[in-house]
Structures are given as C-alpha cells and as structure tokens.
Amino acid sequence: MVAAEGLAPTRSTEEEVRHCARCGLCLSACPGYRQSLSETDSPRARVALQKALREGLLDLSDEGVAEAYFRCLLCGACAFVCPSGVAVDRILEVAREELSRKGYLPDTLAELTSRILQYRNVAAEENADRLIWAENLVQPPTGLGKNSADVVYFVGCVASFFPRSYTIPQSFVQVLDRLGIDYALLGGSEWCCGYPLLLNGDVESARELIQHNVEAVQAMGANTVIFTCPSCVHFWRQAYPQVLQVDELDIRIQHATEFLADTLETNDVELGEMSLRVTYHDPCDLGRKLGVTEAPRSILRRMPGLQLVEMPENRENSRCCGGGGNLESLSPELSGVIAAERVRQALAVNAEIIVSACQQCERTLSAAVRAQHLRVRVEDVVQLLLKALEGIDA
Amino acid sequence: MPEWLAALKTTVGEDRVLDSPVDLVAYSYDGTFGQGMPAAVVLPETNEQVSAAIRTAGLYELGVVTRGMASGLAGGSIPTQRDIVISLTRMNQILEIDEENLTVHTQAGVVTADLQAEVERFGLFYPPDPSSIRQSTIGGNVACNAGGPRCLKYGVTGDYVLGLTAVLADGRILKTGGKPIKDVTGLNLRQLFVGSEGTLGVITEVLLRLIGKPKYVRTAVAHFPRLEDAAQLVKVTLKQGLVPATIELMDATAIACIEDAMHLGLPLDIEAILLIECDGLDEQPVQNDIETVAGICTECGASQVAVAKNEAERAKLWHARRSISPALARQAPNKLGEDITVPRSEIPSVIRSIKQVSVKYGLPVVIFGHAGDGNLHPNILFDRDKPEHRETVELMAAEVFKIALDAGGTLSGEHGVGSFKLPYMRQALGTTSLNIQWRIKQALDPQNILNPGKVILPS
C-alpha cells in the first residue's frame, strides 16, 4: 500500500475517479491509445473500469481487467493533461497494487518480481557481476574499489547487466574521471532500486532493497548519489523517504544531467566542436515526473556547433518511448509501435541523433530504429558529452 | 456464443469485434455522465466492413451506435444492450490533400487536430475548432455539425463539407457531393447527413473545403462592468463590417469560478470578460482591426482593454478562458454543459434569467460561450452521487431550454441533441417539423436500427 499512500495523495482514489469528467482529452496524450486506437487501451477507460469495479459491473477476475492496467506505460501523460486535475497516474498505481495483492499480476510480471527478490537485479544475473561493463575500459574507472567518496554513482540494473546499455556507464565514469570527481561504484552492494516492484503494484516488497541501498550509500560516507537511470532517481526521490518514513533522505539525489550541468557551469568547462543536428527526447520519469528538462538541454547547448531541434511533444509533454511501465514484458508489440512513433517524430524534425538521458529510452528507441532500418542514431547525453570532452584533447 | 455475435465475427473479422466485459465498459460512455453497456463493439477499417456490420445488425434487429473518440456532450453515442457500437477510430487515413482545389478527402476517424496540423503543412487551413479538437474525430464533428470559437468568422463544420461517404441502414454505400464548389444537381443529400448524429447513415469519409491559412492573429481582452455593454460591443463591431474570428464571453459566474479555483487576479465586480481575436493575411490590417475593436470596447463602456503584442501575451490572455474547464472540475464532480443559442441581442436577458434559475434551485450555474454567435454554455454543477441533485439538474435544464426558446433561440448550437435533449424537441421544433424528420428517418432507416432512440423519435 505504500504506493497508494505514498506518491503525494491529496484526494482518495475513489474521489479522483468521481472527478473524471470523461472529456477524453487524456486519449490524445496516451501513447498506448494513439497506437491501438481502441478505447479499452485508454486512460479514460481505466478510470471508468475502476468505477465499474466499485459498482459491481465488473470483477477483478474478469478477462481483460488485469491486462487493462498492465498494458500501460505509467508514463503519466494522462494525468498531466487532465483538465479536471484527476490524478490518473495514482489511480493506475493503486489499481496495479490491488491486482497484485489479490493475485492477478500477469505471469511475466510476477516472474520479474521473483527474479528481483531472488537476485537483487532485474536480469537474474549474479549480483556481484554488476561491474562487468567496467572491465574492458582502457583506463579502469577511479570509482572502482573505493571505501569512501563524496559521490556514489548508482548504475542501475539495465546499464549494469544489458551489454547494449554498457556504453552509458562506460561513458559516464569517463566523464566523471575527466572532470576530476571523487566518486565510488557500489558493485555487488548495489541492489535493484525497487522501481519495477512499484510498477508491479508491490512496493512493500521493495522495502528491503530500499533499506539496503540507502545503507550502502551511507557506508561510503557519500553526501550525493547520482543516477544515469531516470526511473531509479525518480523512485529514490519519491518513494524512498516514504518507505523509510522520513521527510527526506540525508543524501542529495541527482540525475547525472543535473550533476553534470552544475559541474560544467561551475567550472566553466570547455567542450569540443560537435556539428550535429540532434533532438532531445525527455524520459517520462525525468522530465514530466521530476521536472528535469533544462539540465540535459543546457549540457547539449554548451557543445559548439550542435544544433538542438525540438520535437513538437517535448519536455513535460514528451511522448513515452514505449519502454515505461514494464509494458515491454507484457506486450512487446505495443511497446514497439509506440517506440516507432516516437522515432518517426524525431525524423520529422530531421534529427541525426535522438539524444536521451535514460538507458531504457535508448534501448527502446534503438530497437525501433533497427527494426525499421531507419537512418538515425540514439545516444545518451553522457555519450555525447564524453565525445565533446575528448574533442578538446584531440 | 449467440448467433448474432458469431455472424458479426464472421462478416467483419474476429479481431475487429470486441465483446469482453472490459471492452463493453470501455465503450459504454461518451463525454457526459451517461452510460449504457453495448452488446458488442466493432472496430472496422474499411467501408465494406462497416457495411457488413450494419447488415448483420439489421438481420438480427440490433441497433448501431457509431462513435469516434466519444467526446460528445449530449449522450449521442451512448449505446444500450441492444446496440452494437461501431468505433471508426481505426479508419484514420487522410486520403488526399488537393492543393489545386483546396480540398481534403479523409476517412472519418482522423482526429480533427491531426487533420488540421496535416493540412497546415501545406499552408492550408481547416477553420472549425471545437474545444474537443484533440479528442474528437472529423466524422464525429460532421455528424454533430461541431462549432467552436472561430465559427463567428469562419462558419461551422457543415460549411466545409463538400461531400461525404455514408453507409446506409441497408448496407449500401452512398457517395454524395464532390469537389465542385457549386452543385445544385438534385437535393443536397450531404447536408442531410451533416448533424444527423448517426441516425441516417454511418459517415465513413468526408471531403472538406479548405482555405489559405491566415498568417496573423491578434488578441484583445476587455472587461465590462455591464453585460449589456458587452453585447453592444458585438453589435457595433459586426455592424461596422468588422468580423473578428472569435468573440468569447465569460460572465460573472465564470469569472468567479475561475478566480475561486485559479486565483488569477480577475476582478469580481464586473459582469463580463470578452476575449476577441482578429486574423488575416497581413500584419498591419490585423493590427488595425484589433485596435479598432479595442477602441469600440472602450466606447461601449469597457473598464479595461488589453491587446496582446506577441504570442506570449496572447497565451496569457487566453489563460483565463482556458482555465474554465479545470475550474469547473474543481468545483463539483459533475456538470451538465448545455449549448443553447439565442439571438445575439438576447444574450444579456437570457444570462440574467439563467442566473435566476440557479438561485431558485440552489445549484451553481457557470456561463460562458461564443458571444459573437449567441451560443452560450450554461454549465450546471452538481454531484451525481446525490439523488436530489440529479432531479434538480433535470428541472434546471428544462428551465434553461425554455428560456432559450422563449428568447427565439434553439436547444443546441454545436453539441447536438443526442438523447439528452430529446424531451425538449417537440417544444423546440413543433409537430410538423418532427413529423417530417421522422419520415425522412423512416425513408432511410425503415427498421430504425441507426442510433435508435436518439435525435429523432416516432411522431
């Protein structure tokens, strides 16, 4: 019930449901609906289903009920545009929580939960192997094997275990080293942040992970923990204090782009020429949910020659890449067409590179680019920044 | 599986028919608080599939309720257990943009905002702008003859319909109209379907007239201590031959509602705010026009007039108007939004009468609308979970309609009749008109399967 009580409740979810005017504006913002074009896949329907469940028109066990809530990205776009101010995102989280608690979690997602609880990561890999990505760097990262540091870099499961995403932590540690930052990597002491469990409606099971991670960071004597993963940072900022029942953690929690934007600005760091036309894709957890939209852009704007063009749906209005909400595990097809649509939007503004600040966005969008044989690259801000820093030396 | 359902799945394709309890709930409502579970839902992609669905419905005496994104405000696309819903959202292809003849030919399920954006890429303009533009389809707009703020200058949806394709009750596919601007060859069947709300046929394609896109827009906002002076501004401006694109009105109830919810610093001692926009091809004439209107505002008694100098200021001026919906939602869980239209000269007296209805019954009514064309949106705020509210709302709506009709007005300017306004149709139109409408309905739909129980009743 932590999610239900946790994320800034102002009205009960019953009250939220009652305030839906059924105007349908959320359909225009919902990436899932815009691809499936069936009302069943819409936020408005998910709200209406809650009402129907309460009125006894439907039962949780009815075919399609659980699917309706898990075939959703939890990207939050619906709640953001709702003119009635209905917290649709909260309704969706609470619905998942109830389904999960009563045993209606879809099998693929239930497997994910048990994987995380058993292995402490989403990949069902030996958790001690979290730093394999660091092994083939020319210069070993200075953050390896430290017992104390000001800053901890929390790598996150996907970047730690999925080889296609290795470039992100590899680039980021090189950036940190070039900027002379005193940081540490946690290796096997880093556990899954717990966010996938929130998506599965089971934050309670994340308690142990949360306590462990906070202790691991504190054991380093760090005052700051940095993330390249927007979902980790979002979860740390919003759920960690609630689960631990404190107003705020005694640690500064920052996304890599926030940390880097500050550092570049403070130290007036010079960057090499990057003659590229890029567009920036705001990850939902970073942009819409945490309001971090300008830090990544300010890093890009520091790069001489780089032309930043915006897609019409940008910043808080960004359209999800298709990788949110564990949808990928449940319906890879829907996730894929949503990603393809976002890539199409980037191509429409003639971008050479879609820059994001999230390994999940990068993975989902790259997969769509490959599947459709399109001519556009997908890179993380830290990858471009590393090249721009190297450009100065060259 | 019932025989009719098996037949439906065979004729239109199994993957295009939804019948799970979850799907039926998802297709049970529109943009109102009304609700009714359908028998099944069909998501066709071609005219032939629509035709097959209708034929099957006819065979098994089921009703056919057509919908797009179901943002209607009159219950027009709410089904019953004896209806199948045809959702046209997957018929969303723009078939042709003709830059020579300035037309667009499109399937009915295209979202109106998407259609507008697409033609604008060619420097063309589709003017109708219902406030549901992002959550309504062009087919729904045509079927309800949707309006919007810009209609003062540019006219309503029907004014842009050159032709359409409709699937009839017997499954035949009718194509009517075409690219010629003038066409008096026989009866104007296409306009018969405009505003018919799915009762005469299922509109699957439309051919729309486009115009060149006006390049400049200038916006002004004026505060009027007296409602009569705001009405005077409309009259004087139009009489001078100056036609703004938009003259939006917020009355004291709307101003108070917005201020209460949003704290924008709006004055609470005035009776009306008007938001006026002029547009055109060249900057200077548009600027001259808005300044002329601003001058007339002052002459008519406005206490304050502001003209936006740029896009940021324009957005600021629109902020209050755009805040109405969110503000309403914060006041009460439910609202009944009507769209009576009255002769412009009657606006002040009609607003005063509606306020008396609010006082009499004790539920708040918030009034705003399109002052330029006499189209008012009195929104009655209530809580559907309180049974006494539901009764009161009915009584209040009846009185609002009577006020409009007594003033020489009409029940609906742009939302349509649906099922919500049926009880007032005789009062509004009289027996002869209703009888003719029913006979037209019978001629096209003798079995009464197309949106039964909506708009037109046996007479």
Brief descriptors of the model:
heterodimer; A: 394 residues; alpha/beta; Fumarate Reductase Iron-sulfur Protein, Chain B, domain 2; Rossmann fold; 3 domains; four-stranded parallel β-sheet; 8 strands; disordered N terminus; B: 459 residues; alpha+beta; Uridine Diphospho-n-acetylenolpyruvylglucosamine Reductase, domain 2; Uridine Diphospho-n-acetylenolpyruvylglucosamine Reductase, domain 3; Alpha-Beta Plaits; 4 domains; seven-stranded antiparallel β-sheet; five-stranded antiparallel β-sheet; 21% strand
Q: Briefly, what is this?
A:
The complex is a heterodimer of chains A (394) and B (459). Chain A has helices at residues 2-6, 13-18, 25-29, 31-36, 43-54, 65-70, 77-81, 88-101, 107-119, 157-161, 167-178, 195-199, 207-219, 230-238, 240-243, 256-267, 294-301, 327-330, 332-348, 359-371, 381-393; strands spanning 151-154, 183-185, 224-227, 252-255, 277-280, 307-309, 353-356, 377-380.
Taken in chain order, the helices and strands of chain A follow as: HHHHHHHHHEHHEHHEHHEHEHEHHEHEH
Helix content of chain B: 25-40%
The biggest beta sheet of chain B reads: 7 strands, antiparallel
CATH hierarchy class name of the largest domain in chain A: Alpha Beta
Could you characterize the architecture of this molecule?
The complex is a heterodimer of chains A (394) and B (459). Chain A has 3 domains: 2-101, Fumarate Reductase Iron-sulfur Protein, Chain B, domain 2, CATH 1.10.1060.10; 107-261, Rossmann fold (3-Layer(aba) Sandwich), CATH 3.40.50.1860; 268-393, Rossmann fold (3-Layer(aba) Sandwich), CATH 3.40.50.1860. The longest helix of chain A has 17 residues, at 332-348. In chain A, helix 5 packs across helix 8, helix 16 (256-267) crosses helix 17 (294-301) and helix 19 (332-348) crosses helix 20 (359-371). In chain A, helix 17 links the parallel strand 5 (277-280) and strand 6. Chain A has 394 residues and is an alpha/beta fold. Chain A is 47% helix and 8% strand. The radius of gyration of chain A is 21 Å and the shape is globular. In chain A, strands 2-1-3-4 form a 4-stranded parallel sheet. A 4-stranded parallel sheet of chain A has the order 6-5-7-8, sandwiched between helices. Chain B has 459 residues and is α+β, with helices and mostly antiparallel strands. Chain B has 4 domains: 3-87, Uridine Diphospho-n-acetylenolpyruvylglucosamine Reductase, domain 2 (2-Layer Sandwich); 94-212, Uridine Diphospho-n-acetylenolpyruvylglucosamine Reductase, domain 3, CATH 3.30.465.10; 216-325, Alpha-Beta Plaits; 332-416, Alpha-Beta Plaits. Helices cover 37% and strands 21% of the residues of chain B. Chain B has helices spanning 3-12, 21-26, 47-59, 112-120, 138-144, 151-154, 189-193, 227-239, 252-262, 283-300, 311-322, 324-331, 347-361, 387-406, 425-444, and strands at residues 17-18, 40-42, 63-67, 83-87, 94-98, 103-107, 124-125, 161-167, 173-177, 202-209, 211-212, 216-224, 246-251, 272-280, 304-307, 334-337, 365-370, 375-382. A 7-stranded antiparallel sheet of chain B has the order 15-12-14-13-17-18-16, sandwiched between helices. A 5-stranded antiparallel sheet of chain B has the order 5-6-10-8-9. Chain B has a 4-stranded mixed sheet with strand order 1-2-4-3. In chain B, a hairpin with a 4-residue loop joins strand 5 (94-98) and strand 6. In chain B, helix 1 (3-12) packs antiparallel against helix 3 (47-59) and helix 9 (252-262) crosses helix 12. The model of chain B has no long low-confidence stretch (mean pLDDT 96). Chain A binds chain B through residues 18-19, 21-25, 27-28, 37-40, 42, 45, 48-49, 52, 57-58, 62-65, 67-68, 83-86, and chain B through 18, 20-23, 25-33, 37, 43, 69-71, 87, 89-90, 92, 109, 111, 113, 132, 134-136, 325-326, 329-330, 333-335, 385.
